[in-house]
Amino acid sequence: MQTTPLIATAQVMPDFQIILPKAVQEVLGVTEGGQILWIVQENTVQIVNPALYAMQVFQTEMAGEAERTKLVTDDEGIALVQELRKNAGSMTPSK
């Protein structure tokens, strides 16, 4: 994990495209054809790896759920997931 800020610039081309600086590509783990997520808030823009951002949001949203649902062990969590999958598989879409 990077602890010091990375500061990089990119030129805006006439068609409003930019080239993501190599150092930023490496930090975000972005490859050719990959995606980046732009989060704009007031006058600040964050550019993030969308998969990592989604995982962070998910982890934040799920914080405390195990305790709330009284899942204490990994086995209880696995059993719940298996039950949910079984129930989801038995559902058929209505036509």
Topology (elements, then pairings):
Layout: H1 22-28, E1 37-41, E2 44-48, H2 50-62, H3 65-68, H4 74-90
Antiparallel strand pairs: 1-2
Summarize the structure in words.
The protein has helices at about 20-30, 50-60, 65-70, 75-90; strands at about 35-40, 45-50. A hairpin with a 2-residue loop joins strand 1 and strand 2. The protein is mainly alpha-helical and about 100 residues long. It is elongated, with a radius of gyration of 20 Å. A two-stranded antiparallel sheet has the order 1-2. About 45% of the residues lie in helices and about 10% in strands. The chain has one domain. The longest helix has 17 residues, at about 75-90. The termini are far apart.
Give me a quick take on this structure.
By secondary structure, the chain is mainly α. It has helices spanning 22-28, 50-62, 65-68, 74-90; strands at residues 37-41, 44-48.
**Domains, number:** 1
Name the poorly predicted regions: none
Work out the helicity level. 40-55%
The spatial strand order of the largest sheet comes to 1-2
**Rg value:** 20 Å
Average pLDDT over all residues:
86
Annotation, overall tally of beta strands = 2
Quaternary state of this entry equals single chain
Instruction: Please outline the major beta sheet.
Output: 2 strands, antiparallel
The number of helices is: 4
Termini distance?
49 Å
Beta-strand content = 5-15%
Shape: elongated
Please state the structural category.
Answer: mainly alpha
What's the SSE pattern?
HEEHHH
